């Protein structure tokens, strides 16, 4: 099973990849365009080419309260449109601290890729907690 982590932004989408069982999360590039339609097309193409089974999208909740915001709605709408276009399973994780954690990471990956890596690591940790 291939899992893609997505740190969605209106200008850039950070991507990370993992295969359960390998315990490795890798940066997987960025999609850099402000055109929503282009973002969707590029992501659908990637999902199909890489045979992605699950897309994990970071959900931007309000930092203090954890409540949903206008940005949360925008991300949910994007993810649901993605799911319609390629019939991939979409899951969400709280991304409130992903950018902060990404800034603490070393390496060559972009901040957006690192945030997507944190999102996938959170997802993997949540799955492990349930087993």
TrEMBL record:
Job description of the protein: Could be a nuclease involved in processing of the 5'-end of pre-16S rRNA.
Keywords, in A-Z order: Cytoplasm, Hydrolase, Nuclease, Ribosome biogenesis
Gene Ontology CC terms: cytosol
Subcellular location: Cytoplasm
UniProt xrefs under HAMAP family: Nuclease_YqgF
Species per Swiss-Prot/TrEMBL record: Candidatus Magasanikbacteria bacterium RIFCSPHIGHO2_02_FULL_41_13
One family name in Pfam for this protein: RuvX
NCBIfam families linked to this entry: RNAse_H_YqgF (TIGR00250)
GO biological process terms, semicolon-separated: rRNA 5'-end processing
PANTHER family per the UniProt record, alphabetical: POLYNUCLEOTIDYL TRANSFERASE, RIBONUCLEASE H-LIKE SUPERFAMILY PROTEIN
Ranges for domain YqgF/RNase H-like: 1-102
Protein name: Putative pre-16S rRNA nuclease
């Amino acid at each position: 099973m291939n899992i893609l982590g997505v740190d969605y932004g209106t200008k850039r989408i950070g991507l990370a990849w993992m295969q359960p069982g390998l315990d490795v999360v890798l940066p997987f590039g960025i999609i850099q365009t402000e055109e929503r339609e282009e973002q969707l097309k590029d992501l659908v193409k990637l999902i199909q080419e890489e045979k992605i089974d699950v897309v994990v999208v970071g959900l931007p909740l309000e930092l203090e309260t954890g409540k949903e915001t206008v940005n949360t709605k925008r991300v949910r709408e994007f993810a649901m449109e993605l799911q319609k276009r390629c019939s991939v399973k979409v899951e969400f994780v709280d991304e409130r601290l992903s950018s902060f954690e990404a800034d603490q990471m070393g390496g060559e990956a972009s901040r957006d890729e690192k945030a997507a890596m944190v999102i996938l690591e959170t997802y993997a940790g949540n799955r492990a907690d349930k087993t």
